[in-house]
Write a structure and sequence with these properties.
The protein has helices at 4-29, 67-79, 89-92, 99-104, 108-121, 134-146, 202-211, 235-258, 323-327, 329-339, 355-362, 378-382, 413-423; strands at 30-37, 41-48, 54-59, 83-87, 124-130, 154-160, 188-193, 216-221, 282-283, 293-296, 302-305, 312-318, 344-351, 371-374, 390-394, 400-404. The protein is α/β, with parallel strands linked by helices and 424 residues long. The protein folds into two domains: 28-258, Rossmann fold (3-Layer(aba) Sandwich), CATH 3.40.50.1820; 282-423, Glutaredoxin.
Length: 424
């Protein structure tokens, strides 16, 4: 009879051997490489190697890469034979996270990486990013054109819900785009999340890109706020994510067939984009007329506000995935108690989230005012909401008096004074 210890040792060795064999391709094909760019900038590239003819240079958005982005890169390399190079420019340049830093990143580093990637692999290259990562990507493509390449080995760019705002606009105003939006003539494929706040500005973005001569293709990702979800993927995101590798292959073929110009367009002078997120309640500068609100709340009760006259009304657009939105909830709760007036009300409108997600959130956070559900984001669109939170203050005459495009402390002496003055 065999010795039990030998049997267990044999099983253990078999597990070790099988694990080593399984993980070996990952060790060979997923690499980290440090590359020195101009200005002696050391950048660490995460490389998912593949033997195919295409390579994606994936530039991280302002928040960096998330788990689902690494997952997609692995799928593209291992199952679709597309090599992927991943670079986090904020990390390489020691910049803080966020949109402000992304706007400052020069395109020259991306242009250098395009040349290095092609020189090392001989592959045709596609740039890819999301949100504000589109800024260094398009700047890099133009900078690459300025190097006068001999062949169009850069095929174009794939952008997920790109944001090319020069700054966060004043509440109620249309956004102004960075000059690169009208100086990008490479082919672009946009995958736009349907319920993302910037979805309603897609028309103005496309108008800017078309003006530059860019052949831009546009696809809506239905029922999705963000394809690269921070936490566990919701059902709609998960189902779409499964189809994304094949969609990207078709997108690459489309970009290749379109062809990228080698000549760069002129870049207009940068204007002074001084506005950004508010730090206090401000007098409203947009169209002061209000749009009607007919929505149900979290208890399925219908609320119809065809006129917002006779009361001072604070309307707060928010979402549970928005940290600043969550941060200001306690001060909104306190504000309601401090004002404590029959002619004052707070109405919050949740932006396009599933009811189950909101109810789960409310188990940990107390909200002491009605929560209405803007299930498809159409009310936010009518109110020209671009960022979250966005809050409007309506006077007794039914006109918008004040607004703020950021989270603030609502129970300060100045803010309370403004609201009480409207009540008198």
């Amino acid at each position: 009879m065999p010795n039990p210890k030998n049997i267990f040792l044999h099983i253990f060795l078999m597990l070790v051997i099988s694990t080593s064999v399984y993980s070996k391709p990952d060790n060979e094909n997923n690499l980290s490489q440090t590359i020195i760019l101009s200005d002696n900038i050391d950048v660490e590239i995460k490389i998912h190697k593949a033997a195919g003819n295409y390579a994606i240079l994936w530039v991280a958005p302002g928040y960096g890469f998330r788990k689902s982005q690494w997952e997609l890169a692995n799928i593209l390399a291992r199952k679709k034979n597309i090599e992927v190079w991943m670079i986090d420019m904020n990390e390489a340049l020691f910049l803080p996270r966020g949109s402000t830093a992304m706007r400052k990143i020069s395109g020259k580093y991306v242009a250098e990486l395009i040349n290095i990637l092609h020189k090392k692999t001989g592959k045709k290259i596609i740039l890819m990013s999301s949100y504000y990562g589109a800024i260094p990507v398009l700047r890099g493509a133009r900078q690459w054109q300025l190097t006068r390449p001999d062949t169009p080995y850069l095929l174009g760019a794939v952008l997920f819900s790109p944001n090319l705002y020069a700054t966060i606009p004043t509440l109620g105003k249309d956004p102004i785009y960075l000059p690169i939006a009208k100086a990008s003539n490479i082919p672009i494929m946009i995958f736009q999340a349907e319920t993302n706040g910037i979805r309603w500005q897609a028309g103005s973005l496309l108008k800017n890109l078309y003006a530059s001569g860019s052949q831009t293709y546009f696809q809506i990702m239905p029922g999705i706020t963000s394809i690269f979800y921070r936490q566990e993927r919701p059902r709609a995101v998960n189902e779409y994510f499964k189809t994304l590798p094949d969609k990207l292959i078709r997108a690459i073929k489309t970009l290749e067939k379109t062809g990228a110009p080698l000549k760069a367009l002129a870049l207009n002078k940068v204007n002074d984009f001084s506005h950004g997120l508010d730090i206090e309640l401000k007098e409203y500068k947009g169209d002061t007329r209000v749009s009607e609100i007919i929505l149900t709340d979290i208890n399925n009760k219908k609320h119809a506000y065809k006129s917002l006259r006779n009361k001072v009304t604070l309307i707060n657009f928010w979402a549970t995935w928005c940290p600043p939105c969550v941060e200001e909830i306690p001060s909104l709760n306190r504000l309601g108690k401090i004002i404590n007036h029959p002619d004052f009300r707070i109405i919050s409108i949740n932006y396009a989230e599933p009811l189950d997600d909101i109810k789960k959130f409310l188990k940990d956070f107390r909200v002491e005012y009605p929560i209405l559900l803007d299930r498809n984001g159409m009310v936010a669109r009518e109110w020209k909401v671009i960022v979250f939170p966005s809050t409007f203050v309506i006077g007794k005459d039914g006109q918008i008096k004040y607004g703020v495009n950021a989270a603030i402390k609502w129970d300060t002496e100045d803010t309370i004074g403004i609201l009480r003055k409207l009540l008198n």
